[in-house]
Design goal:
single chain; alpha+beta; VC0802-like; three-stranded antiparallel β-sheet; 15% strand; elongated
Length: 135
């Protein structure tokens, strides 16, 4: 993927062709995740997968359902050491598995993906770590 010009554009074209907007798109050197609303894919899963396969020839392609995104945001994060460590420690102690991690170069937020069923517990763990312990 990292050596193929236009890979990301072709994934987005497959979504566009199927009239689907994306909500988030974290990527790495050899992986790309595209987060879309579940209801936008209803009845279009096969068409989208086929179009991405045709345009991009990925090594692996899968749909994962029931992922909740949580953005931890704060201006002070940029210069505060250990923010990510505290975040992941709080989630680990709450027995939450983090399925996706993304932090932009601005360092103003960390976006994580967790199982939808763990959303409320994750929010409480993050709140307790960053708000309750700060008081």
């Amino acid at each position: 993927m990292n050596s193929e010009v236009g890979f990301g554009k072709n994934v987005l074209r497959a979504l566009e062709k199927n009239d689907i907007c994306f909500e988030h798109m974290p990527s790495g050197i050899d992986t790309m995740s595209v987060i879309v609303a579940s209801d936008a894919l209803i009845g279009k899963e096969k068409a989208v997968l086929d179009e991405i396969t045709f345009r991009c020839h990925p090594d692996k392609l899968e749909i994962e359902n029931d992922l909740a995104l949580i953005a931890v945001v704060g201006r002070g994060m940029r210069k505060q050491r250990g923010t990510a460590g505290r975040l992941f420690s709080a989630l680990a102690h709450a027995r939450i598995n983090v399925k996706m991690i993304d932090q932009g170069s601005s360092e103003l937020n960390i976006i994580i993906g967790v199982e939808e069923e763990d959303f409320e517990t994750a929010i409480r763990a993050i709140y307790d770590m960053f708000v309750m312990t700060a008081q």
